[in-house]
Amino acid sequence: MSIVVTGASGFVGGAIARSLAKSGHQVISLSRTCPDFAEPLTGDIGLPNTRKRPGVWHLDWDIRNPAPEVVKERADAAQAVVHAAGCMNDWMTASYAHAVNVTGTRNVLDAFPDSNFIYFSCALVYDPQVDLDGAYEESALVTAGRYTSELERSLVEAERVVHRVRPDAVILRPGPIYGAGDRNTMPYILKRVENGVLALPAGGKKRITLCHIDNAVAAVEAAIKNPHINGPINVGDPEPYVLQKAINTILARSESHNIVKFEEMPADLSKLKAWWWERKAKMAGGAKKIEKALARQNPEVLKKARAKARPLLTRFAVRQLVHDRTLNLSRLNTLLGVHPVQGLAPRTGELPDDPE
């Protein structure tokens, strides 16, 4: 099967593309940069040796712009499209968030109007200001005023575009994704560790549905195999985690094997500190620096810009940490037939009984 994957140069898209190729599919990667595991396609994209051979083949496309002709020529051959490209930074301008996550999604939809369409969204489309206790898919997409960042608002709008243009599409909503190659979830949290102590709003004691990357990939593969399924589907590990235990489990299994102690930051104080960090970043033009670095398409420049420009703590992050964020996975189980693994299942003697 010929399958298009957008965003294959990223953590999630890359894992999806590699797994599909390993399963014997021909994968066409579409992104601004070529993944190191893909072979660039130039000139005649219909070269005989790339037509049926499994593997990952890459075409450059900045999805903020309409698809170039070389991409449109692949439309008829693409039996499925997995749209995993997007910007997941909570510190970006409204214009950039809209250009990538909303306009970009519409451009991908327009380029592949007849292919089985799987949109990779996330659980940020649920109300960020209340506890989620086994949230069902229909409880998402609340009014715009409930969302606290341009990231969330752009993701909600992107889902609405998919609903409107392709009601037959599958929309996958994973919880925060972790696993080998994670560049966002755990690195962002662990930046706050000082002298073995991690100060978090609510002390990391809230329950959350996390998603191992293998479970995310399994959901995509099941959606491809079941093109008659449509609508939003939550994705995650089968049982929620207490965040602090999940963090220490990941650390215990890392090369350092160092676990941390947790310090509880009151929610109101956390929001005040986040406001101060945001104000400082805005005065320095933080979000615009990141946007300019993204436009240059230089990974090292982008890494440095993010390190300097992104606030150490944002009100968006605080709201994610002071509420329970658990998802109902019944549609994942019954419609897609996916029974995910508990990626952080406890092992004897791995952690202290009650990490502080």
TrEMBL record:
GO cellular component: cytoplasm
Gene3D superfamilies per record: NAD(P)-binding Rossmann-like Domain
Pfam family, one: Epimerase
InterPro entries xref list: Epimerase_deHydtase (IPR001509), NAD(P)-bd_dom_sf (IPR036291), NAD(P)-dependent_oxidoreduct (IPR051783)
Residues covered by the NAD-dependent epimerase/dehydratase domain: 3-236
GO molecular function per UniProt: aldehyde dehydrogenase (NAD+) activity
Protein name per Swiss-Prot or TrEMBL: NAD dependent epimerase/dehydratase family protein
